[in-house]
Amino acid sequence: MDNLKATAHIVKHVLEEDKRTRNSDSFLYLKVLEYIAERSDCPDLKSLTVPPLPAEYEGIRLPAL
Q1: CA distances from 46 to 9, 16, 31, 58, 61 (A)
Q2: What is the pTM of this model?
Q3: Residue 55: CB partners within 8 Å, gap ≥ 6?
Q4: For the chain, what are the domain ranges?
Q5: What would the pLDDT profile of 18-61 be if each residue is shown by its tens digit?
């Protein structure tokens, strides 16, 4: 239950900080990943293959995550 509360807090923070996340679930997902990566021992998120795909979902008309 604590993980769910922490996730809800992160999502709320990201939604408040970046208005673009309010219109795209994929962009919100990407920004949440960036938020978590900045605060953990994760490698640089931009070096992974994850960021380009959600950012391009709408442009290539794939369904959102």
Answers
A1: 23, 22, 11, 19, 22
A2: 0.67
A3: 26, 27, 30
A4: 2-56
A5: 998 999 888 898 888 888 888 887 767 666 666 556 556 556 55
